[in-house]
Amino acid sequence: MASYFGLTTEQFAENLRDNYQRHETEQHATEPLEAAQEFVCNTFPSPEAVVSGARHMLAYQISRDPIVKQTVRQIFYDKAKIQISPTKKGKKEIDDFHAAAPFKYLRNKPVRDLSGEQFFKMCHAEQEKLVKIKIAIDADLPNGAQSYLDEIKQLFYRDEYSNLVQEWNKQRCQVLDIALNKMLYPQLSKELKSKLLNESVDFTLMTCGLKLRNWISVRPYQADSSYKEGGHENVESEHTCCPVLSCSFTVDKESASYFAMIDADGQMVDFLRLKHLLWRRNSRKENERKAKEKDMEILKNFILRHQPRAVAISAETRESTSVMEDISRAITELEQEQSMSTIYVELVDAEVARLYQDSPRGRAEFPDYPPLLRHAISIARRLQDPLEEFANLCETEDELLCLRFHQLQEYLPRDRLAKRMQIEFINVVNEVGVDINRALEFTHSTILTHFLCGLGPRKANHLMKTIRQNGGRLDNRSQLVTVCEMGLQVFLNCAGFIRIEPSEANDDRYEVLDGTRIHPETYDWPRKMAVDSADDNDVPENPTMAVEEVMTDPGRLKDLDLDAFAEELARQGYGNKQITLYDIRDELSYRFKDHRPPFRGLGFQEKFELLTGETQQTLYYGKLITCLATGFAFKKATRDELDSANPTRNDETNLWKCPFCLKDTFLDLSEVWTHFDNGSCPGQAVGVRTRLDNGISGFISNKNISDKGVRRPEERVRVGMTLHARVIKINYERFQVDLTCKSSELADAQGKFASPKDLYYDQENADKEKKQEENKKQIQAKRTTYLKRVIAHPSFKNVTFKDAEKLLDTMTQGDCIVRPSSKGCDHLTVTWKIKDNIYQHIDVREDGKENDFSIGKSLWIDNEEYEDLDEIMARHISPLAAHAREIITHKYYKESDGTKAKLEEILMMEKRKAPGRIPYFFSCSKQFPGKFMLGYMPRKKPRVEYVAITPDGFRYRGRVHGTINNLLKWFKEHFRDPVPGAGAPGSRRQQYGQTPLSMGGGSVSGNTPYTPSATPSNLLDDSEANSLMQQYQFGDSRVTPAYSTSGFTPSDTPSSNFGDNNYWGGTPRTPKTPQMHHGGGDRYHQGGKQRQHHSRGRHHNRR
User: Which residue numbers delimit the S1 motif domain (predicted)?
Assistant: First the structure.
C-alpha cells in the first residue's frame, strides 16, 4: 500500500535535498480506500486502518532517511524559535528582580539570537520548574506566512486537479505531517536543546576559565611596577619577587593581628603579633591611644629591621581601609625619619588565603602557626606570585572549586569545570615557563611542574624525585635524558618550557639557550643567527659565546634576513620555519620575557565588593532594602549667604526664625545673628543619612524622601527609624548608596526599576495572564469578608484578623501587620502586638484612591492625616509600641493575664501586707487592647481605671501625660477627684452598657475586635461618688478638685506612710520614682519627645 503513494523514500529525499521535483510522483489508478481493500486482514480490519498504517510506515521511512534528516535538521536549526511560559510555581516566585524575569514570557525568539549563558539560565529555570521551554518552527506564524510543511509538500504532490489526485495528495500531506510533527520535530527539538545547552555551558566554563586566567596571569610583584624594554637584567627581574610584609586580622578588636615577613623566595622570615592594631588612633580612651601608639612603634621597628618593599593587607572587611591608613602613615613617618626607599601598601583579595589557613596543606607546611598567621603568609605569596598560590589549590580539586568564578558555577558539571581550570593553568604555566631548580628548592613552587606539557602530576613527581636522588639540581636540559632517563617524546614535549638559570655551580656545564623558550632541537639555528650577526672582524670561535654576545646586544639581529634563512631551511626539508625564526629572534632579545600584565591595584568597584561582600547580583540599581536613619546632612551657609540672610518673625508667636536651619525659637533678631556668628547654625538640611544592614552608608536627599515636597526632613524622619527604600545609585569610591523613599518609586507601578526584559519578551501574554490573575483574585475576594488588596509594602498581608494575630504571635512586641479591612476597600486595618496574646486593631481610612486595589493617596487615623504606611509606622505605631513597652517594663507593672479580676486580687494581697498604705499597679488589658489598667486600693475595695496609650503619651482621665512619671504624679495628687463622667446613679448602667470607641473613631465592624479609645469612668459606685462630691462642696480639705491649684499641707499627710515604693498614706504624694530613660519608639515622634523633655524639666523644677 505504501508504494501506491507515488514516490519512494529515496526519491522524496532527493527532491527535498535539491528543493525541486527531480522525481515526478506516480499516480495510482484507484482512490486510497478502494486500493486498500486488497490489504484488509486481521491486523488491519478495515480500509481506513490499512491507509492509516501505510501513512505511518511511509512517514517512519521518510523520517529515518539520512538525507531527509540532514536537510530538515539544517532547516530546523535555522528557523527554530523558543517559546517560554511560566509554570504555576514560576508565576509566584519570579518577580521583577529574579534571574528568570527577563525571559519569564518569551515569544518566537530565534535560537540564533541566543548569546552567552542565556540558554543555560533558561534551562536552569526549567529544571527548577519555574518555566516551560518549547523549541519549534512554524509556531504562531503571521497571517499569509507558509509553514515548512506547506513548502515541501509540493515536492510530494502530483500537479493535477482531478478528484483522484486530490485525494491522494491529501494522504501524501498527512504522511509528511506525521513525519515532521510527530517524528522529526520532537527529536530535533531535543537534539537542538541539548546542543544549545552544551554551547551555553561551554561559554559559562570559558567565562570561569577567563576569570581564573585574569587572576593568575599577573607578573610577580615589583615594587617600582615599572617595566623597561631593554636588556637581559630587566628580563631576569621579571621572574624575581620582592620581599613582602603581609597583615591579617579579624573583625574582633580584642583579637590579635599578625604580620608575616616573606622573603623574595616566598619563605617565612619573621612574624609580628600586635594586639591593639584595630584600636583607634584618636580614641577617647587614653589607654587605647597609648596601646595603639605602642603597637605602631613596634611595627615601625619591625619594618625598619626587615626592609620590605611592599605591605599586603587582607581585604575582607571595612576595617581594612583604616588599617591601610595606619600602616601608610607609619611608613611615611619612617621614610621621612630614616630616608628609606618607598614601601608600597596594597590591598589583596583574601579568598585564597581563607582556604589555605585551615587546609591540610597549610597545616602541614606550618603546623605550629595559628590560622591567622598562615592566612597572612598566603596573602604575601599571592601578592608576590599569584600563579604559584593559585596553582597550589590544585593539589586538592575541591579547594580550587571553592573559589567563586560564576553565579551559575554550582550548576556546572564539576569534572568539566575542573578540566577547564586545569587547561588555564597549563596555558599560563607553559607561557611563563618553570624554573626547575627553584621548584626543587621550594616546595610551594613544585606544583607548577604538574602543568608542564608532556608531564602531568605523576611524571612531574617522578621527575622531581629522580633529580633529588641525583644531586638535587639540574645543570642543563640534556640531563633530563642523560640523568633522569626521560623518554624522547616526553623530552621533546616539555624541554622548551623548562627554564634553567645560570649559577656558580654549573658554569662549565651551563647552556645559555637553556634559559630561553628555544627548543633544544633548534639550538643550531640561533647559534647560526648569532654568528651571522657578528662583525666580520670579530667572529667568536665558539657559537655559544656568540649567542651570549648577541643576547647582550640583541640589536644586531635586526640586520639579519630571516626570510632568506627560512627559504634555505625549507629547501633543506625542514618545512616553513619563518614564524619559528622570528620567535627565536625575539627570545634572544628578551629571554623568557613575561608577557603577563603587571600587578594592578584594586579598582573602586573591586574594593567595594571585597570589603562589603556585595556583588552586582546582591546590590543593584532598584533593589528594595531596609535601612536605619542615623542622622541628617546639612549644607553650611557661605559667608555671602549669611550676610544677605533675611530672618523672619512669626506674628503669632513673635519668635524669629533662621532662614537656613529653620529654627524658630529666637526671642530677638540679635539672637539670630549671634546664631550665625558663633557657628551654631548647621545650615540647611539637605537629606537623611542612613546605614544599611551590611554597614554601607546611604543617603536620601530631600526630594527623594516623599512624593510631596519635604523641606525639613527631621519632621518626617527620626534618628533610629527603620526606613524602606530603593537603591538608585551606587558610589563605589565612597562606599555609599543613594536611596529613595518615595511611595511611588517603592511601588514602581511603571516598572522603572525592573530588570530589562528580553527583546522578544511577550508583554501581551504577560499582561493577559496578569489580568486573569487579578480577575481570579477579585472572584476570590468576593467569597471572603475582606477585599484582597495590591499594596507593595513589607508589612502588608492579605489576611484576616485571626491570621494576623497568628503571624504576630511569633513576632516581637511592637511589630505590626497591615491588612484589608472588613469596612470596605477604602479602609485598612493595622494590627500591632501590644504584648503576647494582646493585639490592637487600628482602623485606617483612605482618601484619593485610584482603584479598589491600590492604596489611597492620603491615610487617616481619627483626624490625623498620613501620607503613606511608612509614616503611619513611624508616627503612630512606633510611638504606641514604645509607650506600651515603657509601661510593661515599669517596676510597678504586674502580670494579670489581661483581666481586671486578677489585678484586683493582686491589689488585695498587697493591701494585706501593708494595710496602712495604698498599693497601685499597672497591668495590660485584654478586654480593651490599647489600654492599660491602673489599679489601686485606697481602702477596702480595689479600684481599676484605664490609661490609654497614644502617640503623644499616656491619656488618663482626659489628660495626656508625656511620661509615666508625670502620669503617676498627677494620679497621686488627683486620685480622689471625681472621675470625669461619673455623675448621677443612672449613668452608671449606661456607661457599662456601652463599648468604648476605637482609636480610629469607631468600632471595627465584622469580625474585627473592638479597639477602645475612651476611658471607662464607672470606677466609683454611686454612694462613694456622692460622698466625694459632698465632701468637696462642704470644704473638706482632704479632697482637691482637678482644677484646684491648692496643694496639701504637710499635716494632712502622715510621713510614716511614704516610702520609695508604690504605697502611700491617706493623702496622695509624689513618690521618689527614678526618672525613666526612654528609648524605642520615642525617637520617632519629635513632638512627643519635646513635650516629654519639657515635662521632665518642670517636674525637676517642682521637686
Answer: 687-742
- Rounded to whole angstroms, how far apart are CA atoms 616 and 311? 29
Q: Residue 993 burial by CB count (10 A; 0-12/13-18/19+): exposed, middle or buried?
A: exposed
**What value, to the nearest 5°, has the Cα angle with vertex 863 and ends 857 and 864?**
55
Other beta carbons within 10 Å of 198? 13
CA distance linking residue 90 with residue 102, whole number of Å: 13
What residues contact residue 114 under an 8 Å CB cut-off, 6+ apart? 82, 196, 200
Return the pLDDT at 239.
61
Percent of the chain residues topping a pLDDT of 70: 85
Rounded to 5°, the CA angle 59-180-142 comes to 145
Q: Note the pLDDT tens digit of each residue in 207-224.
A: 999 999 999 998 888 876
**DSSP letter string, 78-121:** HH-EEEEEE-HHHHHH--TTSTTGGGSSEEEEEGGG--TTHHHH
For residue 300, give the C-alpha cell. Answer: 615601625
Say if CB 944 and CB 933 are below 8 A apart: yes
Could you tell me which of 823, 772, 736 has the C-alpha nearest to residue 1000? Answer: 823
For residue 81, name the pLDDT band (cuts at 50, 70, 90).
very high
Residue 198, pLDDT above cutoff 90: yes
Residue 1059: what pLDDT?
36
3-class state of residue 840 by DSSP: strand
Across 27-36, b (16+ Cβ under 10 Å) vs e yields ebeeebeebb
Q: Within a 10 A sphere around the Cβ of 449, how many other Cβ atoms? A: 24
DSSP code string of 531-554? HHHS-TT---SSHHHHHHHHHHSG
Domains defined for the chain, CATH in brackets: 9-80+137-211 (1.10.3500.10), 240-384 (3.30.420.140), 414-517 (1.10.150.850), 523-589 (no CATH), 625-747 (2.40.50.140), 801-887 (3.30.505.10), 890-974 (3.30.505.10)
Give the residue-averaged pLDDT of 201-211: 93
Residues 325, 350 contacting (CB under 8 angstroms):
no
Q: Is the pLDDT of residue 380 over 50?
A: yes
pLDDT band of residue 1058 (cuts 50, 70, 90) is very low
Tell me the CA distances in angstroms from 596 to 251, 431, 517, one per residue in order. Answer: 35, 9, 15
Residue 1027 has pLDDT above 80, yes or no: no
β-pair partners for 413: none
Dihedral sign for Cα atoms in the order 120, 126, 130, 134:
positive
Amino acid at 144: G
pLDDT at residue number 1086: 36
Quick one: what percent of the chain has pLDDT higher than 90? 28
Tell me the residue type at 38: E
* Cβ neighbourhood burial of 965 (10 Å; 0-12, 13-18, 19+): buried
* Greatest pairwise CA separation for the chain in angstroms: 142
Cell of 494: 616539555
Mean pLDDT confidence for 423-431: 92
Eight-state DSSP code of residue 162 = S
Name 562's Cβ contacts closer than 8 Å, sequence gap at least 6. 529, 578, 581, 582, 585
- CA geometry: angle at 572 spanning 568 and 578, to 5°? 45
Q: Rounded mean pLDDT of 740-753?
A: 86
Buried b / exposed e across 1003-1024, counting CB within 10 Å, b at 16+? Answer: bbeeebbbbbbbbbbbbbeeee
Residue 924, pLDDT score = 92
Distance CA 843, CA 162 (A): 81
pLDDT over 80 (residue 1041) = no
Number of Cβ within 10 Å of residue 8's Cβ equals: 17
What mean pLDDT do residues 816-820 have? 91
Return the C-alpha torsion angle 384, 390, 396, 399, nearest 10: 110
